[in-house]
Design goal:
CATH class of the largest domain: Alpha Beta
Distance between the termini: 31 Å
Number of domains: 2
Number of helices: 16
Number of strands: 7
Structural class: alpha+beta
Largest sheet: 5 strands, mixed
Mean pLDDT: 88
Helix content: 40-55%
Order of helices and strands: EHHEHHHEEHEHEEHHHHHHHHH
Oligomer: single chain
CATH superfamily of the largest domain: H-NOX domain
Length: about 350
């Protein structure tokens, strides 16, 4: 499967924010290996590692570990491209969330989003997967505040989550988080989640238009088909991520979730030059890099989230992936954080 990428139009929103914070954007782009001229090319996309490096450099140069939350009160509707139009024309915010989940890949195939009910509320959970680099927390935090700002923009109301969950420990200065989210924040959580009141999501959108909704969905569907060569592996990866905490993912269950036969799943993955086993292993490796970077998670909890029945299997897998044990890999990540405290 090809390297995961993010649409250049989303990256432009990041650059606008960094420029507003008076950072030297051309210098940041050069050091991150991003060609500024290529950002304006039709359909331009950037590798997930280059974007992670951009955020690492921004946090380091600004001296602000909460740089992802800067300019949180600025709406950036252009960042959502055609996905934003499909969201705007929905009847309500719940419909907008569902369109975002459906067409998220247009913006980034490095980001997995799941939406579900949670005790009368709706929980939106994000998992941002990097390549060879750990994903800086600033990157995910920017996604969350940008989405909240867009929801307020299309609804014409100050729609806020009723709670936020973040996987990293509470920072020394939580004030930027309180100012940006204005709701209870649970640090040290299992993942990145926004929780919304059901009533807020049911309120009608002033931009709702059934005729335009059909037109925008058709356009977004055509846009999404540009990525059809990886479509099955992408959807299977999302299903695998959801199933991993339940144990070893089974091919028949993933095929059933994707509404296809096991044989069809196998054939399509072969066409995309991968296999179910390879896809599970690669997904676990990518997630392991994220979970081992969450220092509040024990090695046993990381093994559980990855679907391993025991820590010894996780140990062997890490030796194969990273050539070191889980504890040694975590120590390496901790060393990187100490060298670059902006991401701590």
């Amino acid at each position: 499967m090809s390297e995961r990428t993010t649409a250049a139009i989303w990256v432009k929103g990041i650059l606008e924010m960094l420029a507003a914070e008076r950072l030297d954007v051309p210098s940041l782009l050069a050091q991150a290996g991003i060609d500024v001229a290529g950002l304006d090319a039709p359909g331009a996309r950037l590798s997930t590692d280059s974007i992670s490096l951009l955020w690492e450099l921004a946090a380091e140069r600004s001296g602000n570990p909460a740089i992802g939350l800067a300019q949180h009160d600025v709406a950036r509707p252009a960042s959502f491209d055609v996905v934003g139009y499909t969201m705007m024309s929905c009847a309500d915010l719940l419909g907008a969330f569902e369109r975002l989940e459906r067409y998220l890949r247009i913006l980034s195939d490095a980001l997995t989003m799941s939406l579900g009910e949670d005790g009368g509320r709706f929980r939106m959970t994000f998992e941002l997967i990097g390549g060879d680099r750990p994903v800086p927390r600033q990157r995910t935090e920017f996604i969350m505040v940008t989405l909240i700002g867009f929801l307020a923009w299309i609804s014409g109301r100050d729609v806020r989550p009723v709670a936020i969950e973040l996987p990293h420990p509470e920072p020394k200065d939580p004030a930027p988080y309180r100012a940006a989210f204005r709701c209870p924040i649970a640090f040290g959580a299992k993942g990145n989640s926004l929780l919304f009141d059901r009533a807020d999501l049911a309120l009608p959108l002033p931009t709702s238009n059934p005729v335009l909704a059909e037109l925008h969905e058709r356009y977004a569907g055509d846009y999404l088909r540009r990525f059809d060569h990886d479509d099955t592996s992408y959807r299977a990866r999302e299903a695998i991520i959801r199933r991993l905490p339940d144990g070893e993912p089974r091919r028949d269950r993933i095929a059933s979730e994707l509404r296809m036969s096991e044989r069809t799943l196998q054939r399509r993955l072969e066409q995309e030059k991968t296999s179910f086993g390879d896809l599970v292993d690669r997904t676990r490796r990518e997630l392991a890099g994220q979970y081992l970077g969450r220092l509040h998670l024990s090695l046993g909890q990381a093994a559980y989230l990855l679907g391993y029945a025991d820590q010894s299997s996780f140990f062997r897998a890490c030796k194969r992936w990273f050539e070191v044990s889980p504890g040694q890999y975590r120590s390496q990540l901790l060393g990187q954080l100490l060298d670059n405290p902006g991401n701590a």
